[in-house]
Amino acid sequence: MMKRKNDREVEETYFEKQHLTLSDLKKKAIEHGYLSKSNIAPYPESVELHVAKVSHVTGRRGLEGIFTDSGFRQPSDRSHFLWWELSITTDDICSAEQRFLTSLSPSTQNHNQLPFLEYFTSKAFQNGSPYGNFRFTLSIKELLYHYGAQFCHGQSPVLRVYETVLYRQEILYTIVVHPPNIRCYDDYPRLPGSGDGVCGYDKGSIWWRCQSPSETYMHRFNVNGNRQFYVWDHVCVAFHMEPGWVLHVDQDRLYKRLNVCEGSHPCLLKPPETLLSLAEADNILTYFKGRMVYAGARD
């Protein structure tokens, strides 16, 4: 266990080379107000999701930079990573619900079971983002193909278990992706294809066993009628990027994989950028696309 401050001066407790379960973290000698709570009502644990898509969210300046470069680069010289988060769809959630219910009663079809994940408040299941209003969504399989073709000299990228990071109310599991000739990650375990781990990669999808799908427990998870706050967990994929590298994606493909999203607080955009309303973001995107189409016609 080690501590550090990130680019936003927020303190992180992190565990290198391992993805620690919620139970593992509770066993550690960590002073943490939420992990130590004993009055959290029972909730579905280890809900397994299979997620085929990832997303990268940015602000207006990032949007313009991505189209100028026809691709994605590392956000700053201090970081070697290009970050993507799991893009969880309604179908992903429905499949996870069915998988969870079948694990409880394999012989039952559960046709009449009402959805239950929709009641969870974890940011992992919400559309909003603190990182901006412009979201690019691609399949992880496509992204790995582009990365391998451009930076891996004909070889496949390597996926590894990188870190577990603990914040005040958040657990982040990081997967690192790197070219085979980048040796600084050799001591990190390979990401599993199957098994009992927190997450892995298999057949074009990232599987993730979500252990804490809410940060507030309401509805049938009330404890003495009070809303209970707790940690929530999620998974991010960090692509290793050297200075000057750009992960190129065809501009037409970028257009088709771009949409606007609500901003969520606290805002994690770097000043002077701020979060926009959906109407403002829609107007900017319409103007930006029109400008790019006009430039393409002139060329």
Q: How would you sum up this structure, described in words?
A:
The protein is an alpha+beta fold. It has one domain (2-298). The protein is 23% helix and 27% strand. It contains six helices and 16 strands. It has helices at 22-27, 60-69, 90-104, 140-151, 251-256, 278-298, and strands spanning 2-5, 11-16, 47-51, 53-58, 71-72, 81-86, 134-139, 158-166, 170-178, 199-202, 205-210, 216-217, 228-229, 232-240, 247-248, 258-260. The chain has a nine-stranded mixed sheet with strand order 1-2-8-9-14-6-4-7-16. A three-stranded antiparallel sheet has the order 3-11-10. A two-stranded antiparallel sheet has the order 5-15. β8 and β9 form a beta hairpin. Residues 217-225 have low confidence and may be disordered.
